[in-house]
Amino acid sequence: MFDIGMGELGLIAVVGLLVLGPERLPRVARTTGALLRKARQSWQGVRADIERELAAEDLKQTLRETAAAANPTPDLQRAVESNLVEPAPLPTAPPPSPSGASTESPGHEQH
After folding, report:
1. Residues 28-71 pLDDT 10s
2. Cβ neighbours for 40, distance < 8 A, ≥ 6 positions apart
3. Residue 19 neighbours by CB distance under 10 Å
4. Phi/psi of residue 101, each to 5°?
5. Quick one: how far is CA 24 from the chain centroid?
6. Number of CB atoms found within 10 A of residue 54's CB
7. d(CA 15, CA 21)
8. Distance from the first to the final alpha carbon of the chain
């Protein structure tokens, strides 16, 4: 993490021993270790949160793209518009016969 070698750690330990003394050095080392551990855990928590948010955003984007690709409306609209032809006129009722004969079947009386 800090790219500190064994020689550098030894030098820091000797300076710490001279400055703090043999009584306080172990307590300071434990406190420093605990603080570094908490800082590392906090950083990993923040990193995990960021990665989770990025994964959620990627998932949302994928869902949007999938929904857009699965929506056939634009393709169908274009297909219908490109194949649009003038509709044939609707059939109308046949004109009445000139003889005035009834088109009803025999056996049914008109009221």
Report:
1. 889 989 999 999 999 999 999 999 999 999 888 888 888 777 76
2. 1
3. 10
4. -70, 150
5. 54
6. 10
7. 10
8. 105
